[in-house]
Amino acid sequence: LSGLDPAQPYFQGTPAEVRLDKSDADFVDVIHTDSAPTIPNLGFGMSPAIGHLDFYPNGGEQMPGCEKNPVSQIVDIDGIWEGTRDFVACNHLRSYKYYSDSIIYPDGFLGYPCASYDLFQAGNCFPCPEEGCPNMGHYADRFKDKFKNDFMKLYLNTAEARDFPLWRYKITVTLSGKKKVKGYVNVALYGNDGNTKQYQITKGTLKPDNTYTAYIDADVNVGDITKVKFLWNNNWINPTLPKLGAATITVEVGENR
């Protein structure tokens, strides 16, 4: 039984008999997309974990792409009716959009077990545990016999628009060079299943021999990594033409460690 942002008003905090609960089926998975308090945030979905697996994409309260201005949202690519509904209840309706996207991406929407979204964002719950991460949506039941806890909170990030799934990587760059410079470092990943765009790893003062780490949510699952592209820039003309390189770049894949 899959709960798509089960309702908060009149249901949150009520007895299990009158709301969705994990006792309702052998396996209950839930996607929370609009769980901010109803007052004052107009959240339509409930926040407590109520299933065997509870997924909180983007933290479960505010979905990326839902803060567009009203005109661009109502005159939507999918038509005015779809756009108007999105304007009224964009976060709430993301749950079924993620679900329908999950059917097409059996390897997508990996949920990382974590105590909170802030810890997940900071990288504390990376990579997936040894038994793996469940997939939010249509394929969540592959994890049916693997959950150990009474309930499991799972976190992940999604894109702003279709296609929604993102794949999480940890990228660690150790710099090489003669002296410190100011600027930013970008990295792109290349693999046998596709390439990512460039992602910023760090910006500010760049010191040779220092190591910089970032967690990126890429819009492509690159598969086996074949190449990594390293770029740095300082956005202004420097007559001394400073040089900066990467001594090492380490990429860790969240899914398979």
From TrEMBL:
<dbReference type="GO" id="GO:0042589">
    <property type="term" value="C:zymogen granule membrane"/>
</dbReference>
<dbReference type="GO" id="GO:0004465">
    <property type="term" value="F:lipoprotein lipase activity"/>
</dbReference>
<dbReference type="InterPro" id="IPR029058">
    <property type="entry name" value="AB_hydrolase_fold"/>
</dbReference>
<comment type="similarity">
    <text>Belongs to the AB hydrolase superfamily. Lipase family.</text>
</comment>
<dbReference type="Pfam" id="PF01477">
    <property type="entry name" value="PLAT"/>
</dbReference>
<keyword id="KW-0968">Cytoplasmic vesicle</keyword>
<keyword id="KW-1015">Disulfide bond</keyword>
<dbReference type="InterPro" id="IPR036392">
    <property type="entry name" value="PLAT/LH2_dom_sf"/>
</dbReference>
<keyword id="KW-0964">Secreted</keyword>
<keyword id="KW-0966">Cell projection</keyword>
<dbReference type="Pfam" id="PF00151">
    <property type="entry name" value="Lipase"/>
</dbReference>
<keyword id="KW-0442">Lipid degradation</keyword>
<dbReference type="InterPro" id="IPR001024">
    <property type="entry name" value="PLAT/LH2_dom"/>
</dbReference>
<dbReference type="GO" id="GO:0043005">
    <property type="term" value="C:neuron projection"/>
</dbReference>
<dbReference type="GO" id="GO:0005615">
    <property type="term" value="C:extracellular space"/>
</dbReference>
<comment type="pathway">
    <text>Glycolipid metabolism.</text>
</comment>
<dbReference type="GO" id="GO:0047714">
    <property type="term" value="F:galactolipase activity"/>
</dbReference>
<protein>
    <recommendedName>
        <fullName>Pancreatic lipase-related protein 2</fullName>
        <ecNumber>3.1.1.26</ecNumber>
    </recommendedName>
</protein>
<dbReference type="InterPro" id="IPR000734">
    <property type="entry name" value="TAG_lipase"/>
</dbReference>
<keyword id="KW-0378">Hydrolase</keyword>
<dbReference type="InterPro" id="IPR013818">
    <property type="entry name" value="Lipase"/>
</dbReference>
<comment type="pathway">
    <text>Glycerolipid metabolism; triacylglycerol degradation.</text>
</comment>
<dbReference type="GO" id="GO:0016042">
    <property type="term" value="P:lipid catabolic process"/>
</dbReference>
<keyword id="KW-0443">Lipid metabolism</keyword>
<feature type="domain" description="PLAT">
    <location>
        <begin position="167"/>
        <end position="257"/>
    </location>
</feature>
